[in-house]
Design a protein that fits this description.
The chain is of the alpha/beta class. About 35% of the residues lie in helices and about 20% in strands. The protein contains 11 helices and 21 strands. The strands form 6 sheets. The protein has an 8-stranded mixed sheet. Strands 3-2-4-5 form a 4-stranded mixed sheet. The protein is flat.
Length: about 475
């Protein structure tokens, strides 16, 4: 069959369009490789529903909470935060918790009311929560993303955190062991900082404090009684035998310990962990699932344990250099694997999947009985130094932040869930969501459409 000239031209034009779309896809892929974007998709139930964590925060509060929004009209957070708070106010009547009374103030139009808010704790633009004599102020920056646009995930988390802080006025103290080259929880470094984890714990009503195991001056100079849990995060230098003895005695008396192991070695914790039924192995074989940058992925979480059951089946964890954990529970101790990672044996094309390896485990001992004041000792170990670092905790596409918070909640005995399982759409590219859509739409849609229109005009002229 001989094609007409116009048909040939249209076929050529269609072919060119297909090629241009492939080129556009390659350009998008190049942008992904360059800027490291993270994609998250909205749940099917839409934007108007609050997450389960937010509803738990509402249910944990009582009485009347006055919420005052202090935003200038041009603030990118003014309108969306107003809509968010209306959803919280509506949900407060459904959860049986506190009643939210929401007010809106423009600092330039209501100078008198703004001055009152400042006197009560407001520090510029933001949202002020008041209940009786307690005040919690959330600044405007807490509702915005890195590029300055409104971030729906961070905004909802900020409101839920404020409600939790009101309901837990005294807070919980979490010790952060120092003195062995541990990273600082104030550091904002992407690879080694833990400021994101600190913010996540503060949003649960916890307070982090540096703690040194100095037992040289007095018998009682170990771990203060007000410390609800102690974190040992990737020490560079080994913990001494005297310090380890303090930790072991504290655990036997109901202490709670969260260990994030360094990349190599056991930081002097090996004898303690083995007494609790956990032995640290060498680096893993090649993980079965890897990111573009070589991080291991795992979605195999224990469906029964309180730490992981809220995330099991719908969460993906990232690990930089995970190591294997071998479990052998001694008498009187319950040791539970929390996270497994599938690995492959061998190398190259012939590599075959092998049995999943445990990379995170929990242990519990004692407690119960007739003495209700005696609580059980608890221990959680994760065999990856960067598990709760900023690169993963501040990444909405991973569940590392949620799981790390869940660990602290289980250790300290907090009820409910700290998992942000229902998240709104967030695109991490160094641009806000609108800018990213403009870039992607231009590359994938607009360019090919303009070329098609040009070809159509040319074919009309030729005909």
């Amino acid at each position: 069959m001989r094609l007409a000239g116009r048909q040939v031209r249209w076929l050529i034009g269609a072919g060119v369009c297909v090629v241009l779309m492939l080129v556009s896809a390659m350009l998008v892929d190049a942008l992904i490789a360059q800027f490291h974007p993270v994609f998250e998709w909205e749940p099917l139930r839409g934007n108007e529903a609050l997450s389960g964590r937010s509803r738990v925060a509402l249910a944990d509060t009582t009485g009347v909470i006055t919420v005052t929004c202090v935003f200038p009209s041009e603030s990118p957070a003014a309108l969306p935060v107003g809509r968010l708070l209306r959803r919280f106010a509506q949900a407060s009547g459904e959860t049986g918790g506190a009643v939210l009374s929401v007010n809106y103030v423009d600092p330039r139009m209501d100078a008198g009311v703004t001055a009152q808010c400042v006197a009560q704790g407001a520090e510029g633009a933001g949202v002020l929560f008041r209940q009786a004599a307690r005040r919690v102020f959330v600044p405007e920056a807490a509702f915005l993303g890195a590029a300055g646009g409104y971030d729906p995930v961070e905004a909802e988390n900020a409101v839920a955190a404020a409600l939790l802080r009101l309901s837990r006025a005294d807070g919980l103290e979490i010790g952060w062991l120092v003195g062995h080259g541990e990273p600082s929880f104030e550091s904002t470094q992407q690879q080694s900082g833990f400021s994101g984890f600190r913010r996540a714990l503060e949003s649960e009503g916890c307070r982090l404090r540096n703690l040194t195991l100095d037992v040289s001056s007095a018998v009682d100079s170990g771990i203060p009684a007000e410390v609800g849990a102690l974190m040992v995060v990737s020490p560079k230098y080994p913990i001494t035998s005297v310090e380890r003895a303090v930790l072991m005695d504290w655990l036997d008396k109901g202490g709670r310990l969260f260990c994030i192991l360094p990349t190599t070695g056991d930081a002097g914790l090996g004898p303690l962990l083995e007494e609790w039924g956990i032995r640290v192995g060498a680096a893993l074989q090649t993980p079965l699932r890897l990111t573009l940058y070589g991080d291991g992925l795992s979605d195999q979480l224990n469906t029964e344990h309180a730490v992981t059951r809220d995330l099991a089946g719908r969460a993906t964890l990232f690990f930089t250099a995970p190591r294997s954990l071998f479990l052998n529970a001694p008498r009187g101790t319950v040791v539970t694997p929390l996270v497994w990672m599938p690995v492959v044996s061998g190398a190259g094309l012939g590599a075959q999947p092998s049995e999943p390896v445990c990379v995170m485990a929990a242990a519990e001992r004692g407690g119960g009985g007739v003495d209700l004041a005696l609580r059980s000792g608890r221990l959680v170990v994760v065999a990856d130094a960067a598990f709760a670092a900023n690169q993963f905790v501040l990444n909405h596409a991973t569940a590392n932040r949620d799981l790390a918070v869940q660990v602290v909640r289980w250790l300290t005995g907090l009820s409910g869930s700290g998992a942000r399982s229902d998240v709104a759409e967030v695109l991490r590219l160094g641009l806000d969501r609108r800018s990213w859509r403009v870039v992607a739409g231009t590359l994938v849609c607009v360019v090919p459409m303009l070329v098609c229109a040009a070809l159509w005009l040319l074919t009309r002229r030729w005909s």
